[in-house]
Amino acid sequence: MAYKIEKAEMIAENIFEFWINAPHVAKNARAGQFLVIRINDKGERIPLTVSGVDGDLVRIVFMKVGKTTMFLSTLGEGDFIEDVAGPLGHPSEIKDWGRCVVIGGGVGIACLPILAKALKESGNEVTGIIGARNKSLLLLKDELASHCDELVVCTDDGSFGYHGFPVDILKKKLEEGVVDCVWIIGPAIMMKITSLATVPYNVRTFVSLNPIMVDGTGMCGSCRVTIDGETKFACVDGPEFEAASVDWNELMTRQRIYTEEELKARELFED
Ligand code: FAD
Ligand code: FES
User: Fold this and answer.
1) How far is the CA of 224 from the centre of ligand 2 (A)?
2) Stretch 146-157: mean pLDDT, rounded?
3) Considering only CA atoms, which of 54, 61, 47, 62 is closest in space to residue 23?
4) Domains of the chain with CATH codes
5) Which atom from ligand 2 is nearest to the alpha carbon of 236?
6) Which end of the chain is more exposed for a tag (fewer CB within 10 A), N or C?
7) pLDDT per residue over 248-259, tens digit each?
8) Which pLDDT does position 258 carry in this prediction?
9) Residue-level pLDDT at 37
């Protein structure tokens, strides 16, 4: 079975938003889960987060970083993706936490609207904090704002909103004592540094880990992470974990193990 791309748009430099017709995924997908897609029968499998759901359609937002995402970015409306497996992974723990802060960095921002919406619908007060290199990379900002009580926007270059990083805003909120729970989604280094801020306040803090994944079903072991000293598979035990339990150095080292091969595959694709 192939899955039709119903809408495709480049929403920022190298970042694409696709709505894919996948009723079985759309029906069951919840915030925090992901898909594993394979473009054609010769393609590799890559994991992408469920960024939204609308009827039979499921949204992915991806950054062009290597061979498969480059290939994916060449597809458009009316094209088909061979396999869309999901929803995979545990959904985010949605309940009445109180005052929640959801933080996104880079392409991770696109994972926040579905999360903020679910938290809001469960009676939480939701503050969004997003950070990007510049204003052109503030993905889905207005949609996210519509699900938040407050949205604070940060840019590294000061081209929009607060000139600085989301962690600065988070620290202020923690000092004010107005935070009960935090989600952080973005590059590993950003999640590590931002989550350190909550440790002295003992505030529950979830991060969505992005190790290399292949099958997404707990069989291959490539997404192995260490959580509180125990081996876990991010695809079936996560992808969300409590930040303070994560062995960040191992995660970041393992993310780089195929750098040489990834570069070669990208060069071959570009030729
Ligand atoms: P490659 O040349 O293969 O790799 C480029 C970079 O991507 C490297 O840093 C590499 O470490 C990382 N990567 C490569 N293969 C994988 C893999 N199979 N799994 C994870 N990381 C990999 N990216 C988005 O843009 N949007 C998303 O919503 C998103 N959600 C994700 C959800 C999960 C649970 C995980 C684990 C990753 C997610 N990613 C997301 C990352 C995305 O899967 C990678 O960018 C993609 O696999 C890169 O493939 P490539 O062939 O284009 O690049
Ligand atoms: Fe293979 Fe998780 S991706 S075990």
Assistant:
1) 7
2) 97
3) 54
4) 3-88 (2.40.30.10), 99-255 (3.40.50.80)
5) 2
6) C
7) 999 999 888 777
8) 73
9) 96
